């Protein structure tokens, strides 16, 4: 039996998905599920800050941050994604590098913040990534992290694990991630939910956070590094 290497398999699968992802990602950031993320960051992180986009994909999210006045470095395990990000970044306003977000190429406390949208779920050990983020973010620095909610179709990527197959999607619930972050010296300072069409028929604003998370397509956290 061949040995399963998470990082190599992740790179292979995201290389294969790069074209289909690229065909829809701009619209996700402009009009879809990710359209409120950059403004959310701007409400909490001062312009001019240095932010690393973890799992940057084809770079549209990184460029949204550049437009808001941030210095941005995008990192992704997929060579094909990085190539597409560089093609999009025609004015070299952001830097894009290939790498594993579990082992970040930055010195301790060198970043003002990070953005990680639906990327922790695609790592072998999300806790290791959370601790690595804490290493590179300054004390008091911020992390905007988006976790796929229970209604997100991409969770189908983790389903084969129930048959004993190795998969690259390490699914978790938003409340599980929130507990993990709190237990490891991250303070939640803000959050918002993203919902599928049809959820506007429900009384979202009048129910508890726990129930809203249960209905979400994605839950976006703003966390502060409180580790001394």
Automatic annotation (TrEMBL):
Residues 1-28 are annotated as: Disordered. Residues 53-144 form the Methyltransferase type domain. The keyword Signal does not apply. Signal peptide: none annotated. InterPro entries: Methyltransf_11, SAM-dependent_MTases_sf. It comes from the Bacteria. GO terms for biological process: methylation. One of its GO terms (molecular function) is S-adenosylmethionine-dependent methyltransferase activity. Keywords: Methyltransferase, Transferase. The keyword Methyltransferase applies. This is Class I SAM-dependent methyltransferase.
């Amino acid at each position: 039996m061949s040995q399963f290497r998470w990082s190599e398999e992740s790179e292979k699968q995201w290389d294969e998905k790069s074209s289909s992802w690229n065909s829809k990602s701009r619209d996700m950031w402009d009009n879809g599920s990710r359209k409120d993320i950059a403004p959310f960051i701007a409400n909490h992180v001062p312009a001019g800050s240095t932010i690393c986009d973890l799992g940057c994909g084809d770079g549209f999210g990184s460029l949204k941050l550049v437009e808001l006045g941030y210095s941005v470095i995008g990192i992704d395990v997929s060579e094909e994604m990085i190539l597409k990000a560089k093609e999009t970044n025609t004015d070299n306003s952001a830097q894009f590098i290939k790498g594993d977000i579990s082992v970040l190429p930055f010195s301790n406390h060198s970043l003002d913040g990070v953005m990680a949208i639906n990327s922790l779920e695609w790592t072998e050990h999300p806790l290791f990534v959370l601790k690595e983020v804490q290493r590179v973010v300054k004390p008091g620095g911020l992390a905007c992290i988006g976790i796929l909610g229970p209604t997100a179709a991409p969770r189908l990527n983790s389903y084969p694990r129930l048959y004993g197959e190795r998969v690259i999607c390490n699914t978790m619930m938003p409340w599980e991630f929130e507990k993990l972050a709190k237990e490891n010296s991250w303070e939640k300072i803000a959050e918002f939910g993203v919902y599928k069409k049809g959820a506007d028929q429900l009384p979202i604003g009048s129910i508890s956070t726990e129930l809203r998370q249960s209905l979400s397509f994605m839950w976006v956290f703003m966390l502060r590094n409180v580790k001394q």
